[in-house]
Every structure is written in C-alpha cells, then in structure tokens.
Amino acid sequence: MIRLSAITPSGHVHLGNHLGAIRRWAAEGKPDDLYFISDLHGMTSSHNPAVLRALAREQLAVLIAAGVGERTVFVQSDLARELGALTWVLECTCSYGEAARMIQFKEKSKGQAGVRLSLLTYPVLMAADILLQGAAQVPVGEDQRQHVELARVLARRFNATYGEVFTVPEAVLPPAAARVRDLSEPARKMSKSTRDAAGVLFVLDEPDALRRKIKRAVTDGGSTVAYDPEGRPGLANLLDILAGCVDGDPVELAAEYTSYGALKAAVTEAVVETLAPIRTAATALLDDPAELDRIRKAGATRAAERGEHRLQSALRLIGAG
Ligand code: ATP
Ligand code: MG
Fold first, then answer.
1. Do 303 and 171 share a structural domain?
2. Complex ipTM, two decimals?
3. What is the pLDDT of residue 177?
4. How much is the pLDDT for 142?
5. Same domain, 164 and 37
6. Dihedral of CA 90/171/200/75: which sign?
7. Does any domain span residue 190?
8. Which ligand 1 atom sits closest to the C-alpha of 21?
9. Residue 164 within any structural domain of the chain
10. In total, how many domains does the chain have?
11. Nearby residues of 1 by Cβ (< 8 Å), 6 or more positions away
C-alpha cells in the first residue's frame, strides 16, 4: 500500500509544515511511501525560477534533515519527462469541463489576468504524480480532495477504456493535527506563501529570530493563561505549538503557566529544541551540494524506475509508439 504526499516550494518550510506533515512523514513513513517536492506545481502562477530552484533544494534538505527516509524522497521536476508524458496521456482522457469545474481553479483564477493554462491543468499533473507511482492512498486536506477524486475518475476511465494499468487511488484524511496559526494574525493559518514573515516560524530560522517572533506573538486580551481557541486564538495557538513540540496537552499545559512571559519563554525553548537539530542537519546538507545531489539523484532514479512500466503500458495502450 503506497502512500504519496508532497510539499510545494512556494516558500520556506515553517513549523506548521513540520508539526502537521513532515514530522509524521519521518515517524510513520513506510519504505514504500513517497514524499516529493512538487516544484512543477510551483509554476502555475507567477514565479521566479532561481527562487523556486533554491526553495526546492532547501525543502529537500529539510525533509532529509527532519528524518524523512532518504529512499522515499524525490524532487518532482527530476521526473519532468515521465510526468509530462503521462500528463498528456491523462489530459487525453479528461474533459475540459472536468478540469474547469475544480474549485481550486475557480478560486485561484477568479479576477486574475493572464491565468496560466497550467493552473487549469495542474490537477491532471497531480493525477500523473499519483498514478505514475501506483499510489493507493493520498493523504490530503479538504482543498485537495477534489483533485484526488479526479485522479480516481481518470484512473478508472483509462483502465476501462484502454486496459488495466493504474491503481485507483483513494484520498485519506491525514491524522488530525492542530493547525498552527500565524503568530501575528491567528485568524489565518501559518503559511509558506504569507508575505509578512513576522508571524511565521521557519524551520531554518536562527534561534534568535524564533525568540523575537514568539515574543511579539499576539496573545489577545486577558491576563490569565487559559486554552480557549474560540475566544483567545492567539494564546491557544501558542499552547498548541507548545503541546505539539513537547507532545503534551494544551489544556493541561495552560494550567502550568500564570503569565504570558513564562509561557512564551517555554514556547521559545520548545520550538528551538524541536527545530535546532533539523536546522543544523539541513544547513550541513546545503553546505555539501555533492551529498545533497547524490541523495536527490538516487531518489529520482528510484521514483522514475518505479513508474516506468506504468508509463510505457499507458503509452502503448493509448496508441503511442
Ligand atoms: P502554501 O501557502 O503555499 O499553501 P502551506 O504552508 O499551506 O503553503 P502546503 O505546501 O500547502 O503548505 O502544505 C504542506 C503540508 O503542510 C500539508 O500536509 C499541510 O496540511 C501542512 N500544513 C500547512 N500549513 C500548516 C499549518 N499551519 N499547520 C499544520 N499543518 C500545515
Ligand atoms: Mg497550503
């Protein structure tokens, strides 16, 4: 049972990505699972090539540094030929209406000038990501469910029309993890693509930067420390972060602190302790390009080899070559 998950290099990796995804990939990942840096998906709207390339490398280093199995990781663009070919095959089984109906496309294209065609077709590339590898389970949040559903439809349709090639994938809900919120604006979640970095704790931030950001985190009114996500989201977020880092319970932790200052000091210590080893290992990898390239290449070769027979069968069955 292959599971497949990805992270897009749309910005620097943050604590939310780590607690909500990467940490689990490291702890629960099976040898057959696949985790990839979806840099091709980072080109569907205005982007800077050099920044995208650097971020993809950085994310690869962070994943490895965080303990995600070296043999399970690859960078999507290293399979650009295979994925490009399979995307074309799948586009030839997908109607325009099916792609145009995607909620993500509607939301992201609304009111935008010069919408890239790839914004419309990237769910088909995502189907190729999944189907090339024969992934059975794709853990995704609500926003990506419709895309996995499309991958299911295309897999079934191809199998029924041209011949059995693809495993029909299934979207699975990732285990519930508290959504880490932005420290300055707790109404929204911590995100890679947020412009203002003041409320975002990056995995590669220096301890001093982490300390400063946590010090400035909004804590709402009131003077007692209590866990009330509805009424006091900023404070609850700090408690969730602490709980996530020390593997504790936010309600129980709230009872241990009587001042914001003491709580923030504890949060800082816990975050620094969680991220420092990753930062050290990731920095070492980024300073050793040959080693990072070796890991990257091995991952790409493995992923490409694993999908090759499906790509060849699909091309043959659909009438190519
Ligand atoms: P973007 O702003 O580009 O959407 P992002 O920070 O939302 O970036 P994604 O690449 O969309 O990150 O998601 C990567 C993984 O990190 C997913 O598994 C997602 O559920 C998880 N994740 C993202 N943000 C958070 C968060 N704030 N708290 C917990 N998990 C998160
Ligand atoms: Mg996101």
1. yes
2. 0.99
3. 73
4. 87
5. yes
6. negative
7. no
8. 18
9. yes
10. 2
11. 30, 32, 136, 137
Specify the residue for token string 């975050």: 271
Question: For residue 70, what pLDDT is reported?
Answer: 93
Q: Check whether residue 88 and residue 147 sit in a common domain.
A: yes
The atom number, within ligand 1, closest to the CA of 8 reads 10
Residue 205 C-beta-side C-alpha neighbours within 13 Å = 25
Cα-based angle 127, 51, 25 (whole degrees, multiple of 5): 50
Distances (CA, A) of 81 to 85, 132, 199, 204, 311: 6, 12, 38, 32, 11
Q: Could you say which residues of the chain have pLDDT below 50? A: none
CB 264 within 8 A of CB 214: yes
- Give CA–CA dist 52/320, Å, rounded: 33
If one counts every other C-beta atom within 10 angstroms of the C-beta of residue 27, the result is: 10
Residue nearest to atom 17 of ligand 1 (CA): 21
Biggest alpha carbon–alpha carbon distance for the chain: 72
Task: Find, among 125, 122, 148, 146, the residue nearest to 136 by Cα.
Answer: 148
- Residue corresponding to tokens 């000091």: 265
Q: Is the pTM of this model over 0.90?
A: yes
Number of Cβ within a 10 Å radius of residue 222: 12
With tokens 């939310």, the residue in question is 16
Rounded Cα distance between 191 and 188, Å, is: 8
Range of the domain at 47: 4-178+289-318
CATH code, domain with 243 = 1.10.240.10
Nearest to 236 by CA among 226, 244, 245: 226
Q: Which two tokens stand for residue 246?
A: 């020390």
> Which of 5, 10, 14, 17 should be mutated for ligand 1, with most atoms under 8 A from CB?
17
200 in a structural domain: no
